[in-house]
Write a structure and sequence with these properties.
Helix content: 40-55%
Strand content: 5-15%
Order of helices and strands: HHHHHHHHHHHHEEEEHEEEHH
Structural class: alpha+beta
Radius of gyration: 25 Å
Number of strands: 7
Number of helices: 15
CATH superfamily of one domain: Nucleoside Triphosphate Pyrophosphohydrolase
Distance between the termini: 65 Å
């Protein structure tokens, strides 16, 4: 691993990158605004999500919550509904909690001090660096996947980028490269270079403004870097999902717990295959769950739904039924909603698929 460039080369790398960015940057709605709140929103949304997917969400979210005060004291369900479909919903909850901290503890002004910023809910090393450099033009490193790829190739870094100590190596390098007077354009430039030119596969080295200093290119091993340990094998979980209606044609939904995957989102009741594998007992189990006096009749739906998360795959088998009696004691986490309300509450993508499948099948009937 060669971590040093000649000082003159470092200056040339930085200048070339900034010049390239200013001429070639994409026209994205969160750029050139220098508003730390808007930068914060965009950077949180861009974590784990493609730019093209984020753009409409960002514009709607910014329109719905134009100020930190409007987001800080919004109903969480309203926030989650605005985030619906973007995934990784903990980002939205942490964003709101962090913004509320800034409003209440810092008078609605995002701190310019990194150590203070890192104390705020949901803000880690990357987000703090992005806010400080992009919005405030401060020379603070912001290391994301694109940045690690560019630097791994430029400096021939062969350490595993999944390890926290490797991130520290990148941050040290950026400390030396970031120009004080152009930190915002530099940090955005190296991210942009990773997104458009220094791509994971088939990098466009002939179009790269800093390729003459790239040590991986000199050895023709660009595509073998960066090195990243493999993720754990994705596991599959199977569930029975219930589409239950009452005599008023309302649908039963369940609110997930306040922590964990898809926290606080609404879903159709789910029963794990691993916990209740016997289909013959399903009717009795559901009746007991809803405190019904007698079992109800559930029919299996011919179609099923699958949904893949980053670490997990859900296989969802659908069952439908109609309650002829009113549940005398519906658990607190359950409620009946109309079809109209079913489109107004925040529901994860996996259950949006079920909602549309079931509604459309009834229309076809």
């Amino acid at each position: 691993m060669t971590l040093e460039l000649h000082q003159n080369h470092s200056i040339l790398v930085s200048a070339s990158l900034v010049d390239w960015y200013r001429k070639n940057q994409r026209d994205l709605p969160w750029r050139n605004m220098h508003n730390p709140y808007y930068t914060w929103i965009s950077e949180v949304m861009l974590q784990q999500t493609q730019v093209d997917t984020v753009i409409p969400y960002y514009e709607r979210f910014k329109s719905r919550f134009p100020t930190m005060q409007s987001l800080a004291y919004a109903d969480e369900e309203d926030v989650l509904k605005s985030w619906e479909g973007l995934g990784y919903y903990s980002r939205a909850r942490n964003l709101q909690a962090g913004v509320r901290e800034v409003v209440e503890q810092y008078g609605g002004v995002v701190p310019k001090d990194r150590s203070t910023l890192l104390k705020i809910k949901g803000i880690g090393p990357y987000t703090s660096g992005a806010i400080l450099s992009i919005a405030y033009n401060l020379p603070v490193p912001a290391v994301d996947g694109n940045v690690m790829r560019v630097l791994s190739r430029l400096f021939l870094i062969k350490e595993d980028i999944a390890k926290p100590k490797t991130r520290q190596v990148f941050e040290k390098l950026l400390d030396e490269l970031i120009p004080n007077e152009a930190a915002s354009d530099f940090n955005q430039g190296i991210m942009e270079l990773g997104a458009l030119i220094c791509k994971p596969k088939n990098p466009l080295c002939e179009e790269c403004p800093i390729s003459q200093w790239c040590q991986a290119k000199q050895q023709d091993i660009q595509e073998s870097l960066p090195i990243k340990s493999k993720k754990a094998k994705q596991k599959t979980e199977a569930y029975r999902v219930l589409w239950l209606k009452d005599a008023s044609d309302r649908v039963l939904v369940h609110k997930r717990s306040e922590s964990g995957l898809l926290a606080n989102l609404w879903e159709f009741p789910m029963i794990s295959h691993s916990e209740h594998s016997d289909e013959s007992h399903l009717n009795s189990y559901v009746a007991e769950m809803l405190s019904l006096k007698k079992p109800l009749t559930l029919n299996k739906v011919n179609q099923s739904v699958s949904h893949t998360f980053s670490h997990l795959k859900w296989e969802l088998n659908l069952w439908e039924g109609t309650l002829l009696e009113t549940s005398p004691c519906l658990p607190n986490s359950f409620k009946w909603v109309t079809i109209k309300e079913l489109h107004e509450i925040p529901i994860p993508v996996s259950h949006q698929k079920i909602r549309e499948l079931m509604i459309n099948s009834k229309r076809a009937d």
